[in-house]
Structures are given as structure tokens and as C-alpha cells.
Specification:
Blueprint lengths: L2 E6 L3 H13 L3 E3 L6 H14 L7 E5 L7 H11 L4 E6 L4 H9 L4 E4 L4 H23 L11 E7 L6 H14 L4 E5 L7 H4 L19 H7 L1 E2 L5 E3 L13 H12 L4 E7 L4 H9 L2 E6 L3 H16 L8 E5 L10 H8 L2 E2 L8 H10 L10 H12 L7 H5 L11 H8 L3
Helix pairs in contact: 3-9, 6-14, 9-10
């Protein structure tokens, strides 16, 4: 059986050199190369969703791949797709890098400039390892296919637009539907998830920041199991300690959570830092919450443009959620969509703070009245995003994209002719 090899190379000259050599290997079947980390993860996720047998046996990652650094990308591939063998192509063949690559999950390292003999030997060894892993996985019935859980980030166009409440209710809805759910507070300096849920817990996301290999036991020690069943990973009580959570640490933490939970909801707040940017970049669905007023919508537009400039997220890959919506306001969702260039969620959250005030003041937003319009809308949004199974009536009202991770923005644009 041919060995399927997927090159992940951003440089055009390196792509030509690598694909030429790969095509000369015996029993090799090079597939179309991917040019960045996002495309690699998306491609592997799509193939794994069909079948584990559809995944390539070998992925070759060039050292200059981006925007996620090569070692971080290797770690994510190893965590999410454990039957895929990853080879790092690099000009640095020092023992330190070799050890780091192995620690991050690579199965081999090839020095630049590329040589046929070394490439052939390493690809063959990694392909044999991958085949052995797949035989082992195939012996079991319900085995983890490596796709991992769904990651949804919730960011605010500015402070006070309701991002934290939205994140909490999405997590509660997913957990209530029977899906193991984690809620992460990456609003590192001003995070309020603990206050909204009446939680006092000494551990926080900072406790995982310096750990390079987050085992299930280490992760379990850092999370707080709320009465609702949601696993909480909280922001630090001392806001200045948030600086300890780097973008690299955030990627490791999100990857570890994704491998253990079906749904991971991340509250990124309204201020962009390295950790929040990494989470938004990794997310299957990135939500941006705004209210229908000029200042908030300008903030949403500013955020979308900044994400695009920094290559964190494209506008068409972002979904705006309109909070505190009323029919009488001048700024309606279609106008927000036009201004921001994003998709807009089909579910708008109505303005009715009176429903929320008691639960918010008591720090018990998990006890919102299920008959309230705000909670119903937020849980309807969770169904629209595919985090829960939408009721039959909600499906008829337009939740066309439930169950299709990360596709809300794309489908919404097509429905509106964008």
C-alpha cells in the first residue's frame, strides 16, 4: 500500500524541492501540500472526520511553517491525530532541537538541505510506525480518532458587551446536553467567570503555564468541577500573573483540553493578548460579541481588522453575535455584517437585563430561569453552533449549521449571498 505523505511547507522553493524528492520515493504517494498551520490542521480534521484510514501516514513539517511555530504545530498534530507520524525538516540539527522535537511529538528530524537517502530512510521508518499505531487502534471498537473536541472562543468587541455571560451559557448548554464541557477564562487580568458562577478556587490557568507536558492528572488538578458538571479553568485571582500565560502556554493548554473534552469554550475577554490570540487562532469557531450601538460595532470592526492584520483570523472565519438586540434599534444584524465583513449568527440575544439582574448580582448565572428570553436565545445560539442538538422547532427557524464545527460563518455568508 502506498505511503501517503502530506508536506506542510510555506516557502514556494522549499515546496518544489520537497515534493520533487517525495515523488521519487518508492511506494510514496505525496498529496497536495498545505502552506500554513491552519490549513494543515483543517485538512487533517476533515480527513479524520471521514475515517482514520483517510489520514496520511506521514506529515512533513518545514521549520518555517506559520503562523503557528513548527514545534507547537507538531504538538497539536500529535495530540489530535496520534496515528499520524510527523517529521520536522530543519537547518538546525543540534541535539537540543532534536530532543525538543521528540518531546513535542515528532517521529523524526531531517536536516536541510534535503538529501534523498536520509528522506527515504526517515519516511519509511515513520510510515511503519504509523501503520503499527493504526493496527493497534483498529483492534479496538470505540477508539479516539484524534479529531478532538470542538473549541469555541468568545471575545468582546469592547468591555461590557456580554462576552462572559455568552461563554458561560454556551458551556452550560453543551454540558446539559450530555457533552463533557470545559470553560476556560483567558480574560487573564479581569476575568469574571468565577464571580458569575460563585466559585472560589485557588488554582488557575497560570498553574499550567510552565508545564510542557500537561498530563490528564495535571489537568484534572487544575480544573474546578462546577455543580453543573462544567469543568472550569479560571483566570488568576492576581491579574498581574496573567503575563505568565504566553501564547505557547495557551496553545498547550487548549490542546490538552481539546483532547479531554468534547466542547471547550474559551472566554477571551475584550483585550487581545498573546494567549487569547493563540486561542482564537486555534478555535473551530471564533465568536465576537457586540451590542447594536455605534461604539461597540466600531470596536468589532477594529477587532476583526486587527485579527486579519496579525493573521490570527480572517473576517469570513469570524462570527459576530449581536447581544441586547431590539427590533427598534437603528443598527440591525445585516448592517453589522456589512460593516464588519463577518458572518452574523442567526440567533440574536434580546435586550432584557431585568431577567439577568438577580442572578448576576448573586453570582449565580447558572440558575437563570429557563423560561427567560435571554437564556433561551443563548441556548439557541449553542444549538446553532452545533454545541447541542437543536430542538426540531429551532432547526426550522434557521439553525442550518448545527453539528458542523467551524462552518457557521461560511454557511451564513452563502445564505446571505456573500
Amino acid at each position: 500500500m502506498p505511503t501517503r505523505i502530506l508536506p506542510a511547507v510555506g516557502d514556494a522553493d522549499a515546496v518544489r524541492s520537497l515534493t520533487t524528492l517525495l515523488s521519487q520515493l518508492p511506494d510514496a504517494e505525496p498529496v497536495a501540500p498545505v502552506v500554513d498551520s491552519t490549513q494543515l490542521i483543517d485538512t487533517l480534521a476533515r480527513l479524520a472526520a471521514e475515517s482514520i484510514d483517510e489520514l496520511p501516514e506521514v506529515v512533513v513539517v518545514h521549520e518555517r511553517i506559520g503562523p503557528v511555530p513548527a514545534l507547537e504545530l507538531i504538538r497539536e498534530v500529535a495530540l489530535r491525530f496520534p496515528s499520524v507520524g510527523v517529521i520536522l525538516v530543519t537547518s538546525d540539527v543540534s541535539p537540543g532541537l532534536f530532543q525538543a522535537a521528540m518531546d513535542y511529538g515528532a517521529r523524526g528530524l531531517i536536516a536541510l538541505p534535503l538529501g534523498y537517502e536520509e528522506l527515504a530512510s526517515r519516511v519509511q521508518a515513520v510510515a511503519q510506525w504509523s501503520a503499527g499505531v493504526r493496527r493497534h487502534l483498529g483492534a479496538g471498537g470505540d477508539v479516539f480518532t484524534g479529531v478532538g473536541g470542538t473549541v469555541v472562543t468568545v471575545s468582546g468587541a469592547k468591555g461590557g458587551v456580554g462576552a462572559t455571560l455568552t461563554a458561560i451559557q454556551l458551556a452550560l448548554a453543551a454540558q446539559a446536553s450530555g457533552r463533557a464541557t470545559a470553560l476556560v477564562d483567558l480574560d487573564l487580568q479581569t476575568g469574571d467567570v468565577a464571580s458569575y458562577l460563585d466559585v472560589q478556587f485557588r488554582r488557575s490557568v497560570v498553574d499550567l503555564a510552565a508545564i510542557t507536558d500537561i498530563s490528564p492528572r495535571v489537568l484534572a488538578d487544575a480544573v474546578f468541577r462546577h455543580d453543573t458538571g462544567v469543568a472550569l479553568l479560571l483566570a488568576p485571582a492576581e491579574g498581574e500573573r496573567g503575563e505568565e500565560v504566553t501564547d505557547r502556554a495557551a496553545r498547550q493548554i487548549v490542546s490538552a483540553l481539546r483532547s479531554r473534552y468534547e466542547v471547550v469554550v474559551v472566554d477571551c475577554g475584550a483585550q487581545l493578548g498573546g494567549a487569547g490570540a493563540a486561542a482564537v487562532e486555534m478555535a473551530d469557531t471564533a465568536l465576537l460579541v457586540t451590542t447594536p450601538d455605534v461604539v461597540a460595532v466600531r470596536g468589532a470592526k477594529r477587532t476583526v481588522r486587527m485579527w486579519d492584520r496579525l493573521q490570527i483570523r480572517k473576517a469570513e472565519e469570524t462570527t459576530v453575535v449581536v447581544n441586547r438586540h431590539t427590533r427598534g434599534t437603528e443598527i440591525q444584524p445585516p448592517l453589522i455584517q456589512k460593516i464588519t465583513g463577518t458572518a452574523v449568527a442567526g440567533t440574536a440575544i434580546p435586550a432584557n437585563f431585568k431577567e439577568l439582574q438577580g442572578a448576576v448580582d448573586a453570582g449565580r448565572v447558572h440558575e437563570l430561569d429557563s423560561r427567560g428570553t435571554v437564556k433561551q436565545a443563548l441556548w439557541g445560539l449553542a444549538a446553532e453552533l452545533g454545541l447541542v442538538k437543536a430542538p426540531e422547532g429551532a432547526a426550522r427557524r434557521g439553525s442550518r449549521s448545527r453539528g458542523d464545527r467551524g462552518a457557521v460563518g461560511f454557511r451564513r455568508r452563502r445564505e446571505l449571498g456573500g
